[in-house]
Amino acid sequence: MGQVTELGVHAGAHRMQNADLGGFGDGTNIKMNNSWLFGFRVTLNNYRFFGHEMGYAYNRTKWLQQAGGQTVGEAGTAIHRGFYNFLVYATPEGSVVRPFAGAGGHFHNYVFPGYSGVSGGGSTKFGLNYGGGIKVRVSHMFGIRLDVHNYWNGKPFGDLFLNQTGKVQQLEVSAGFSLLL
Predict the structure, then answer these.
(1) Model's pTM, two decimal places?
(2) Could you report the per-residue pLDDT of 150-165, keeping only the tens digit for each?
(3) How many whole angstroms separate alpha carbon 125 and alpha carbon 110?
(4) CA 165 to mean position of chain CA atoms
(5) Residue 30 clears pLDDT 50, i.e. is over it
(6) Which DSSP string corresponds to 9-22?
């Protein structure tokens, strides 16, 4: 029988690329650091080889304050992610092993250190993502999955920092557990 709906949780790591947020007038720069994440996904496999996925991820990171190439301070902070992906599977619905590729849109809410995402201390950026992975059905109700996704969007807090250029990229590697309905 096919896996029509999947409810899953995942955890993993994210690697920040082009994570220099810019600088201040005193010559110091702020850069985001690599760290960990966790979240949930809801997948609707409404066609034999296609599906839709929505979810949320909490990314923990640090802002590193750098001067002269040396880290002189750090502060912990969070990045909240909401996402949608269109999925294409290499094997039909109901297969035990299902390699997949996906692409879609997301938002990242970058939280200013010392604030929470709901207190208005964030900078929200919209972007695109792509990736893939493999899902394995271990019983009629349970599955595991491995994912690799690349997220990119504009840099946050553009009015705060000097000399911002390029896009922030996050490479996510995660593993998860799913309830198959």
Answers:
(1) 0.92
(2) 999 999 998 888 888 8
(3) 8
(4) 21
(5) yes
(6) EEEEEEEEES-EEE
